[in-house]
Automatic annotation (TrEMBL):
<dbReference type="Pfam" id="PF00106">
    <property type="entry name" value="adh_short"/>
</dbReference>
<protein>
    <submittedName>
        <fullName>SDR family oxidoreductase</fullName>
    </submittedName>
</protein>
<dbReference type="InterPro" id="IPR020904">
    <property type="entry name" value="Sc_DH/Rdtase_CS"/>
</dbReference>
<keyword id="KW-0560">Oxidoreductase</keyword>
<comment type="similarity">
    <text>Belongs to the short-chain dehydrogenases/reductases (SDR) family.</text>
</comment>
<dbReference type="InterPro" id="IPR057326">
    <property type="entry name" value="KR_dom"/>
</dbReference>
<dbReference type="InterPro" id="IPR036291">
    <property type="entry name" value="NAD(P)-bd_dom_sf"/>
</dbReference>
<dbReference type="InterPro" id="IPR002347">
    <property type="entry name" value="SDR_fam"/>
</dbReference>
<feature type="domain" description="Ketoreductase">
    <location>
        <begin position="7"/>
        <end position="190"/>
    </location>
</feature>
Length: 246
């Protein structure tokens, strides 16, 4: 038995990278996981693989830009497993490039997924957490918001907006019902570069990832650490980056 055993955890962006690694680790440690993302084939395969290994998992098609999809994800968790203990709002895209590219579409897409997507999750999960008397919101933000570098301005802004409203929510939620955790990874070896449209920037980031990125399992362990604390202990912020990252 672990402190994670028996918890019900919904994870957005569970079809690859950090979300997938988190789903696998939490399921291994006895959580029931509800997997959300748009690539349903990958979700179905992952859910099946977790069940084949003796875990509990279901897949639920989710586009975080659509508030009704987050409601469905939360409803599925409650319908299948009786409650929702944790929502890991992890889905994200990185349409990075110099602001001078004026990639208005990419900026909007990042706002829709990285920012609105997390708000939609909060709107869906908070009533359930309040009804249950407890709940935990975990989000994947980024070290991009801690050290602002060229090409990542708008991406970093979406992550820092999340950091800001999570702190506000925390201040408004000191009655002991809600825990909030913002996890800031540095370079992690995932498929995030696939969402980058600027070929030059994408290649640059891929090279850096090959050179120094850490495995997504490292971030999964950090998320598990926040979840496994007793409910009166809130891990507010975790920064986890390659030791060699500047
Ligand atoms: N990798 C890094 O170096 C790094 C560093 C700091 C922070 N992060 C953050 O970590 C989080 C996870 O990214 P990752 O690195 O694991 O990259 P990834 O492998 O590309 O995973 C991103 C996940 O987000 C999902 N997603 C994208 N748009 C979505 C939408 N509209 N609705 C639902 N799901 C959506 C993708 O699934 P579908 O395409 O199937 O929908 C995928 O499962 C992101 O928030 C990212 O910003 C990553």
């Amino acid at each position: 038995m672990t402190a994670i055993s028996g918890k019900v955890v919904a994870i957005t962006g569970a079809s690859s990278g950090i979300g997938e690694a988190t789903a696998r680790l939490l399921a291994e440690r006895g959580a029931a996981v509800v997997l959300g993302a748009r690539r349903t084939e990958r979700l179905d395969e992952l859910a099946q693989d977790i069940r084949d290994r003796g875990g509990r998992a279901i897949a639920c098609a989710t586009d975080v830009a659509r508030p009704e999809d987050l409601e469905r994800l939360v409803d599925r968790a409650v319908a299948e497993f009786g409650r929702l203990d944790v929502l890991v709002s992890n889905a994200g895209i990185a349409k990075i490039g110099p602001m001078a590219d004026l990639d208005v579409e990419g900026w909007s897409a990042m706002i829709d997924v990285n920012l609105r997507g997390v708000l939609h999750g909060i709107a869906a999960a908070l009533p359930v957490f309040r009804r249950q008397g407890r709940g935990h919101l975990v989000t994947t933000v980024s070290t991009s918001g801690l050290k602002i570098v060229p090409t990542q301005a708008v991406y970093a802004a979406t992550k820092n907006a999340v950091r800001t409203f999570l702190e506000g929510l925390r201040q408004e939620s000191t009655d002991g019902v809600l825990r909030t955790t913002a996890v800031s990874p540095g370079f992690v070896r995932t498929e995030l570069t696939d969402s980058m449209d600027n070929a030059h920037v994408r290649e640059q980031i891929r090279r850096t990832m090959d050179e120094l990125a850490i495995a997504p399992e490292a971030v999964a362990r950090a998320i598990a650490f926040a979840i496994e604390q007793p409910h009166d202990v809130e891990i507010g912020e975790i920064t986890i980056r390659p030791t060699v990252q500047g």
